[in-house]
């Protein structure tokens, strides 16, 4: 085992701990949506993404069309395209096309954040090492939540329901403090999202399309009002 | 959920998610030029996560419109604590656990009324 791989393993531990609690909540929610524990586990093992999976199980429980599922996943996970582009610039020569296709699977928000913050170029050994613990945490938490979640008292399950949203807030709130652009985008998305819940006429639109419309509209607004400067690209 | 209904959903979810991650990393090795596209992609994560969190977090503790208002109160307490911790730039795990504990505590207080 190379030292780069070991360093990756170690760097992945905090991410794995965070994933464990959030995926535990996901497992509970998946079962509540009518999925079996094995199905919940398969989703986590093949998707490895919180927001997309959460929207996905909602759409599955409502038996929405597959095209809506595809569009929803595309929009929610579009951010990974940017992260993959950015991370692709940091890879050294050991990163063949096959390795790129391999490490792309594990390009989550948190793994990207850790990998992108490394100094200098990074190779495939480090990336594979970095993916291991979060993958175990995400899959393990899911099956635990799906199987043991129903054994927990109702008040505990109720409290865990908010975990995944807490994680989302931890990502979106800090940039709101300093950056007017992010603040504007976030307020626009929140206002639109609420409007889609309360306004007559558009109130019954399915959650998948609401996320797509809110995200595209408010991100476009942000890009139009506050084009990012070159040095902000990596952030 | 029967497997013949579930499997197509699983394939679509996993397939789209993987392609979105894999194609840009393998095909595009040159930087994007369009400033608008770059900016748009930069803001997408914040927009998506906001649209998923607001107002859904209010219903995350079991509240349904017209239902027990105590559930809504618990969710609001959790939301406020999460915002407070996130504002202080605490990590993902800390913010998520704090929100859960706040909901737990709020449920306890609600039992008194």
What does this structure look like?
The complex is a heterodimer of chains A (235) and B (113). The longest helix of chain A has 30 residues, at 3-32. Chain A has 12 helices and no strands. Chain A is mainly α and 235 residues long. Chain A is globular, with a radius of gyration of 19 Å. In chain A, helix 2 (37-47) packs antiparallel against helix 8 (124-148), helix 6 packs parallel to helix 8 and helix 11 runs antiparallel to helix 12 (207-225). By secondary structure, chain B is mainly α. Chain B is built from 4 helices and no strands. Chain B has helices at residues 3-27, 35-53, 69-87, 92-111. In chain B, helix 3 (69-87) packs antiparallel against helix 4 (92-111). The longest helix of chain B is centred in the N-terminal third of the chain and has 25 residues, at 3-27. The radius of gyration of chain B is 20 Å and the shape is extended. The model of chain B has no long low-confidence stretch (mean pLDDT 90). Classes of the chains: A mainly alpha (235), B mainly alpha (113). At the A-B interface, helix 1, helix 2, helix 3, helix 4 and helix 5 of A face helix 1, helix 2, helix 3 and helix 4 of B.
| Mean pLDDT reading of chain A | 88
Strand content of chain B: under 5%
What is the string of helix and strand elements of chain A?
HHHHHHHHHHHH
Assembly form of the protein: heterodimer
Mean residue pLDDT of chain B: 90
Query: Rough shape of chain A?
Result: globular
Using a beta-carbon cutoff below 8 angstroms, give the protein chain pair with the largest interface and the number of residues from each chain. Answer: A-B, 101 and 75 residues
The main β sheet of chain B shows up as:
none
Task: Tally the helices of chain B.
Answer: 4
Low-confidence segments of chain A:
none
Query: Helicity level of chain B, as a percent range?
Result: over 70%
Rg result of chain A: 19 Å
First-last Cα distance of chain B: 39 Å
Give a quick account of the main beta sheet of chain A: strands, pairing sense, barrel closure: none
Beta-strand residue percentage of chain A: under 5%
Distance between the termini of chain A: 31 Å
* Cα radius of gyration of chain B in angstroms: 20 Å
Order of helices and strands of chain B: HHHH
Could you tell me the number of beta strands of chain B? 0
Helix content of chain A: over 70%
Quickly count the helices of chain A.
12
């Amino acid at each position: 085992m190379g030292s780069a791989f070991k360093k990756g393993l170690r760097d992945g531990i905090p991410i794995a701990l965070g994933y464990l609690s959030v995926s535990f909540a996901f497992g509970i929610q998946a079962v509540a949506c009518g999925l079996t524990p094995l199905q919940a586990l398969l989703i986590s093992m093949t998707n490895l993404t919180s927001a997309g999976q959460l929207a996905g199980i909602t759409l599955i429980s409502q038996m929405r069309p597959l095209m809506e599922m595809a569009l929803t996943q595309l929009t929610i996970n579009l951010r990974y395209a940017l992260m993959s582009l950015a991370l692709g610039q940091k890879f050294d020569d050991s990163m063949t096309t096959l390795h790129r296709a391999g490490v792309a699977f594990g390009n989550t928000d948190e793994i990207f954040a850790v990998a992108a913050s490394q100094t200098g170029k990074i190779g495939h050994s480090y990336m594979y090492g970095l993916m291991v613990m979060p993958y175990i945490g995400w899959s393990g938490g899911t099956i635990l939540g799906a199987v043991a979640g129903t054994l927990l008292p109702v008040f505990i399950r109720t409290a865990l329901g908010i975990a995944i949203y807490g994680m989302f807030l931890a990502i979106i709130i800090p940039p709101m403090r300093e950056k007017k652009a992010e603040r504007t985008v976030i307020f626009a998305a929140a206002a639109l999202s609420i409007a889609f819940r309360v306004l007559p006429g558009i109130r019954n639109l399915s959650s998948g399309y609401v996320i797509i419309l809110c995200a595209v509209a408010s991100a476009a607004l942000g890009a139009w009002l506050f084009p990012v400067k070159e040095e902000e690209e990596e952030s | 959920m029967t497997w013949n209904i579930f499997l197509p959903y699983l394939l679509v979810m996993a397939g789209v998610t993987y392609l979105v991650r894999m194609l840009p990393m393998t095909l595009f090795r040159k930087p994007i030029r369009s400033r608008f596209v770059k900016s748009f992609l930069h803001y997408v994560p914040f927009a998506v996560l906001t649209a998923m969190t607001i107002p859904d977090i209010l219903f995350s503790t079991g509240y349904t419109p017209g239902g027990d208002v105590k559930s809504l109160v618990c969710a609001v307490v959790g939301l406020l604590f999460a915002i407070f911790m996130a504002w202080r730039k605490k990590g993902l795990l800390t913010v998520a656990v704090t929100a859960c504990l706040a909901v737990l505590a709020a449920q306890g207080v609600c039992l008194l009324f």
